[in-house]
Structure formats: structure tokens, C-alpha cells
Design goal:
Two copies of one chain form a homodimer.
Chain A (H helix, E strand, L loop, with lengths): L4 H16 L7 H8 L3 H13 L3 E4 L5 E4 L8 H7 L27 H17 L2 H12 L1
Antiparallel strand pairs in A: 1-2
The first copy, chain A, binds a DNA duplex through helix 3.
Chain lengths: 141, 141
DNA sequence: TAGATACTTGACTATTTTAGTCGGGTTTAT
DNA sequence: ATAAACCCGACTAAAATAGTCAAGTATCTA
């Protein structure tokens, strides 16, 4: 059970972006340098973030990215969802509530994994980008 | 962020074992059939569970496994720990609290991932095997 | 005591996922 | 014009996962 780099990087990059998101767009190159994340990889990640309207791009020289919503309105859920970082505890599909592992009844632990998924997702739904930026600057002082 | 089969199977198998753990040891063959888990794979898993003293083995004909503690005293944490299902949110080592990704300061999101890890581990520490068995039988009635 | 049942151990392997890289674009400020 | 930046799809090496397989050893029962 581990978080992937993609999800981790997405959050790191967005916190960085939120911090430097004053007047000018922030270039991926800057984020790459500050956070130590490969530029090519960042481009993949931001492409997804843009498609989900979490950021906006500004093309051309002096371009970059800006947040597309207020930091308060961007939750971890949104970020993870955008980059396909899903919480998956179990194989069985959500829709077919009845059958797990091909059997006609739910597996013995089905409810447990559901509960765990909810527990984790709750955490992600409560945390906003703003929380993270604040938490970060507070602790630096 | 997903749970591995090893962890999932370990819990499923132990719930099964706890349910049928009356007088006689339960054979892996039975668990394999009931839960649809490969026998060879189960053997690997139970080998680890035995080394961590969660189960006891009874060799020979009519042998099998029995719980080594009361179901109430076996927490999810213990099970996951035994089969190396760890919650890992971040690369940086716990010990070197100071440096993430080779830099001298913590990464922007370090505290977040710590918090997440704790959140998940709390869940695992609270759930016992007994809870799972009860939850399961209750819902069947 | 033979045979069956079941645990024990370690090595091996196919598949999938992850974490990128690479090469070629297009857009726009200066 | 040109450099800085975004844009996009294909490719790939490495790691992790989810097993399989083979060759045991122990113990019960007939």
C-alpha cells in the first residue's frame, strides 16, 4: 500500500505553484529545479491537471501555469483523481456489489476494504491546497 | 495507492481460519478452496504469519493451522506487518527527519504524508480479527 | 509400516506497474 | 527571428507483484 510518485509529485508541484502564484505564471522548469522533479515527467502530470481544469496554461515565452481555482477549492481528491492516483483496496468492481472474486457472495472482508477506502478518501477530501501551503509556511517561521 | 493481494489474502485467510477455528486445525487446502486463493501462495503467506507467531502449525495428516492468540488480540497492523504490507507514502527514511530527496530541508509536503500514514495506521491498529469475524457473521443473518 | 495428508523451504518466472525518457511538434513575447 | 515555454504520443528500463514449481519433512491412520 503505497502512494505513487505521480500523485506525490502532483501535490508537491501544486503546492510549489500555489506558493509562487502571484502575478506571473510559473514555468515547469522552475518547479522542476526547485522540487527536483524531471521536467518531462512534470509535463505529463500538468497535462492531466490541465485537462481536469485544476491549472491553466499560458503558452509561449514567459509562459507557464497558473491555478485555475482558489487554493481553498482544490482538494487532494481532485488532484489525485486528475493524475489517476486512486485508492484501490480491492479487485472487485464497485458496481457489481454482489460478486467478489467470481463468487455469488461478497468476500469475507469486502466491507472492511470499503470502510478503509472511505477512511482514506475522507482524509483526501478534507485537505485543500490552501491547508498545505499554510501548514508549510507556518512551520518555516 | 493500493493494497496488495498478499495483504488482502492474509486477512481473508485469517478471517476464514478464525471462523472455523473450533477444535481442529484448519488446513490451507480448505482455505484455498473456500477463498479461491492459490495453495502455493497461501503457504508463503502462512509461513510468514507463523514466524510472527500469529498462527501455529500442526504438521502431518489432519494437521493445519490454528490461531496463536485470541482473535481480539490480533490487529490488522500485526497481520500486515507480518506479510510486509507496509503503508508507504514517501521515499524519505523515517530516521533522517531532516532530509528529503537529498535536500537539506524537508520537502514541502513531508508533513502531509506523515499525517496520512498515521491516519491509515490508526485504522489498522483499531481493527481486530474479532471485529471482522463478527461484522461478517452479523451481516449474514 | 505404508500411504496419504499436510506443512516447509527456496528458487524461479511471467506479468504488470511505475517512473520515467525521447523526439518531435506548436505558441508567443521580445 | 529566436528563444522560452507548453504540447503530445510513443517508447522503455527497472521494480514490484503474484504467483508457480520442485523437492523435501512430519505425522496420523489403517
Amino acid at each position: 500500500m503505497k502512494l505513487t510518485s505521480k500523485g506525490r509529485y502532483a501535490v508537491m508541484a501544486l503546492v510549489d505553484l500555489a506558493k509562487f502564484n502571484n502575478i506571473n505564471p510559473v514555468s515547469l522548469r522552475d518547479i522542476s529545479l526547485r522540487q527536483g522533479i524531471s521536467l518531462d515527467y512534470l509535463e505529463q502530470i500538468f497535462s492531466k491537471l490541465r485537462k481536469k481544469e485544476i491549472v491553466q496554461s499560458v503558452r509561449g515565452n514567459q509562459g507557464g501555469y497558473v491555478l485555475n481555482k482558489k487554493a481553498k477549492e482544490i482538494k487532494l481528491t481532485n488532484i489525485f483523481d486528475a493524475v489517476d492516483e486512486k485508492v484501490k483496496t480491492v479487485q472487485c468492481k464497485k458496481e457489481s456489489k454482489k460478486s467478489c472474486n467470481g463468487k455469488s457472495t461478497k468476500c469475507l472482508t469486502h466491507n472492511l476494504w470499503d470502510e478503509l477506502e472511505n477512511h482514506i478518501n475522507d482524509f483526501f477530501e478534507k485537505k485543500s491546497l490552501e491547508d498545505l501551503v499554510q501548514d508549510n509556511t507556518e512551520r518555516r517561521i
